[in-house]
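From the methods appendix. Each design record in this collection lists the tokenized structure first, followed by the designed amino acid sequence. Records were kept in a plain field format so they could be parsed without special tools. The example shown here is representative of the layout used throughout.

RECORD:
FOLD TOKENS (370 positions):
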């Protein structure tokens, strides 16, 4: 069975993001940087990878850094440099000798491409100057590509995580460098509205008006339905259209959960004895089981604020009006909504607030509200 849920998807496996991808590519080609905002698991990394792949085919350089997995300033600089070098053969050399100044210098000297990359020797120094290396690595993105006559897409995934390092100082440094670069377009992604707001949107934000904001929503019914039927047919798994429609109605086209339902569907079918079709309820049971830890933790992360918890519960109940159903002096609904939106827990769709995570809604109905 060929379906790994959780890994970013590209190419034929990437469903329903054509419009966003076209817009992003057009902007990047026009030299406009882009920031992609959506809650976790909405498919940001997938869109980012797809854009990178497509631009690579058009001979762009790319440099990808996932801030989530970057522990220190030094490693941020290192990842950027490695990312830039990954477009040419120098990257192998760098990885191999980066802990050995003498050897790295010797190796670099015999390469014609050496010019302009001398700063990488700083990575092998005993007491590396992290700030200086970061500054040089950001400059390097543009200078190296320029030297090679290529345009470059520098992609920073989960950029909001920059705040775990010296966020303010780093974003200021980025800003000052990026402004003067000629060959580089930047793409950022982030899960937390508030954090991204503070970096990109607020008037005094360091990247104010620097990048165009694109938001990802749920995936449309039609393309996702077609994908589900194709996938099942390819695997030789029979289905009832009604079950697939019910799945999509439940997930609302949330990419991660839809894939998870599909995966559970196929797994249940393959172990079922007389090849009976899995019922919707059975699939749901399995999905809830596999997401149990995640959902419990998510719920607990809200427990520090009674206000937020109550609003989330009311939303899960699908009450017509939050304001009239929460009639308590100690709950400030507007404030709660703002903070939950900022965390990406709720989103606004057709003028109505929703829990962004459709399974959290079901989980709350099942385990909290009863
Ligand atoms: N456009 C899409 N079409 C199909 N599946 C998708 C799509 N986007 C995301 N997915 C599914 O959702 C999962 C999470 O996607 P990912 O890109 O990692 O999200 P994010 O970076 O927003 O957390 C992927 O592993 C994949 O199974
Ligand atoms: Mg991601």
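DESIGN:
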């Amino acid at each position: 069975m060929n379906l790994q849920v959780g890994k970013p998807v590209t190419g034929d496996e990437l469903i329903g993001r054509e419009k966003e991808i076209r817009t992003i590519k057009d902007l990047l080609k026009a030299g406009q940087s882009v920031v992609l905002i959506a809650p976790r698991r909405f498919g940001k990394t997938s869109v980012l990878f797809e854009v990178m792949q497509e631009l690579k085919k058009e001979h762009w350089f790319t440099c990808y850094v996932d801030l989530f997995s970057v522990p220190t300033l030094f490693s941020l600089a290192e990842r950027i440099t490695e990312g830039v070098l990954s477009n040419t053969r120098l990257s192998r050399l760098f990885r191999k000798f980066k802990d050995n100044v003498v050897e790295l210098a010797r190796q670099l000297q015999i390469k014609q491409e050496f010019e302009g990359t001398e700063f990488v020797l700083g990575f092998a120094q005993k007491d590396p100057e992290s700030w200086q290396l970061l500054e040089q690595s950001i400059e390097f993105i543009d200078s190296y590509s320029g030297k090679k006559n290529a345009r470059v897409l520098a992609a920073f995934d989960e950029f909001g995580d920059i705040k775990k390092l010296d966020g303010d100082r780093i974003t200021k440094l980025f800003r000052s460098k990026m402004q003067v670069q000629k060959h580089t377009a930047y793409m950022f992604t982030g899960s937390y509205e508030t954090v991204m707001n503070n970096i990109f949107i607020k008037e005094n934000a360091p990247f104010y008006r620097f990048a165009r904001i694109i938001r990802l929503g749920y995936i449309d019914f039609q393309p996702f339905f077609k994908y589900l039927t194709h996938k099942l047919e390819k695997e030789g798994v029979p289905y009832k259209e009604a079950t697939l429609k019910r799945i999509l109605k439940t997930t609302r086209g949330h990419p991660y959960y839809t894939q998870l339902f599909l995966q559970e569907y196929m797994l249940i079918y393959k172990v079922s004895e007389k090849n009976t079709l899995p019922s919707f309820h059975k699939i749901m049971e399995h999905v809830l089981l596999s997401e149990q830890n995640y959902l419990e933790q998510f719920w607990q992360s809200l427990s520090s604020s009674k206000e937020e918890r109550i609003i989330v519960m009311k939303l899960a109940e699908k009450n017509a009006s939050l304001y009239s159903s929460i009639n308590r002096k100690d709950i400030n609904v507007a404030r709660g909504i703002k903070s939950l939106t900022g965390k990406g827990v709720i989103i606004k769709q057709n003028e109505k607030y929703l829990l962004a995570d459709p399974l959290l809604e079901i989980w709350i109905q099942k385990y909290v509200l009863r």
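APPENDIX NOTE: The chain has three domains: 17-215, 220-291, 302-370.
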